[in-house]
Amino acid sequence: MAQRNQTQIKFILLGITDSPRAQTPLFVLFLLIYIVSLVGNVGIITLVRVSPSLHTPMYFFLTHFAFIDICYSTVISPRMLADLLSEDKTISFTACMMQFFTFAFFATIECHLLAMMAYDRHVAICQPLLYVTIISSRVCWQLVASSYLFAFLSAIIYTWCVFGGSFCGPNRIDHFFCDAVPVLKLVCSDTHSSEMIFFSFVTINAVGASVVILLSYISIIRTVLRMCSAQSRARAFHTCTSHLMAVSMYFGPAFFMYLQPSSRHGSLDKVASIFYAMVTPMLNPFIYSLRNKEVKGALLKSGRRLFRHWQHARLVPSRT
Q1: Between the CA atoms of 262, 265, 270 and 276, what dihedral angle is there, to the nearest 10 degrees?
Q2: pTM to 2 decimals?
Q3: So where does this one cross the membrane (predicted)?
């Protein structure tokens, strides 16, 4: 098929389920998940901005992490929610391609941010005297900017690999968004080279970030075990727990989805996609707030400050 006609193709997203009875309950469930995700991540960003005690590199990375969670869940959730209540589940070639591009862009940045946060913890625990010098404000901005740039280039390559072939057969995507694996199944031209390039860049991004995280935590564990005080060891491990939980929840389903042979993909793909595209962004704010004393302390201080302002606002009109 000529490239000119590719943009005229319309895909049909089959969604999570074809059962009419299940669609309304699923709509309510995923709408709730999306709202909680938005509120939680916006809350993390706002709390870090208004709390001077959280103006550190670790929380600088965390605000970007929360922002990316908002973005890449928003790429998926609104369209999926609309499809659950609509009979027309068609999506144009251009819209499908842009959905995949933006999702790949934000998901790649998230990989890099998780690696940066692990490196930040490594420097804070293993080289505390040099922390301010190594993880300076300028370095933080350079790391984040480079991750955005590399993610943008990677997303272009991913999109070319997935949508660069010819679509001349069935147009039904057995998924709830335009992801790589279900879209590649519809390509009628040879996809071997595209799949190899795609797999290589996924390996560079996901496995590369995982190696940085693994090496960082090996160094952290060695340093912590050499600490004399049991209290110091417990505090050091506690600061890393939240990040390790976020890493395992993100990389586990992502590896299952993208780093297995195409012949092994099946019904569990949708479950894995729901987890890392919707559930994980919802859980991350709770992980970083409920298991972090600094965040809980800042939240309590902000709550007391708001309560005092509210009391003051009530008292002033009554005196006048």
Answers
A1: -60
A2: 0.86
A3: 26-47, 59-77, 97-119, 139-160, 196-220, 241-259, 271-290
